[in-house]
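Duplicate of earlier report; DUF1403 family protein input re-posted below.
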Amino acid sequence: MILRPKSLSRHPVPFAGALGAGPAAVVPTWLRRAVPDAQDVAAKDVEDIALVAGAAFATLDAIVRRQERWGGAWRQRLALAAAAVTAKQAGRVEDEAALRDAVLLTKAGDDVGPAGRMLLAWRRLATRSTEDLLARKNLGAVLEEFGYTLDDEVLGDLAGELRRLSTEGMVAMLTGAFIVAGRYGFGQAFGAWLADALLAQHLGWTHAVPLLGAEVNAAGFDRARRSATVVAASSEDGGAQSKSLMAAQTRAALRAIDLAVELGRRSERLLAVAPKLRARASDLVVERLLSNDAIVASDKVAGMSDRGLRRLFDRLVELGAVRELSGRPTFRIYGL
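Output:
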């Protein structure tokens, strides 16, 4: 019920203006107002929500297909937001800053902890090729990062179900992701991960955009996780489950669009000041900032000393090109 990928790529999006013009230039006011929140879904017709979802995803699709240089930072920032919600849902106290620390300040090969592994699962969605996301080996790694254990037979059955699900329409695919996750005893977060991966494959994106992870607490998601008859039930209650999931997906798409606008503006500033940087390997530092949510000031970059790297970051902050994200005097972390 959301526009098919060929339609998205073939027709121009009249309101998808320049990213630097601000969120309002990309997403019109009528679209923002038309997206129902969790309490308003029941009063909306499924056709109306599908229309709004199609408009939102046409805009998001246009952004994804531009393959901006800051796309890596954008997807990883969305992955961080999804991981924070996943951790909270699991009863953990780590927020986005703590999750970032868990991964960036841990030595290679060391355990990043349960919450850190949740972030790795969402980063895997954001950084792996879409073609590899639902491969059996990758699914096993993701489930381990989410804290599940499973045998090879279950993993094979899961991969087979997802292959069949990938041939369905958008709505069946969306609800089906949560049904499959629930059938095997996995949580809402994994259902959201699957839905994002299936969406990316369906639309032909090279990389998935983490969307639904930040919406797993929305009304209706728990029913999707628990019920194996959700699609049949939806037809009897006016498509309540499908409406809830589509509305949540649309809200997530609009947040992703707004973040793209914000990071697009910040990346323009970074690229504008880049020619002023005289430090060796400054071009590589700029590329890392555009490709990652954040980097640590002590990272080894093309032989630069820790002192030289800190001076470079201080200069970038002074020029308003990057932000220091930790708020600490030591072990500082920088990003767009």
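The chain has two domains: 5-265, 277-335.

Merging into the original ticket.
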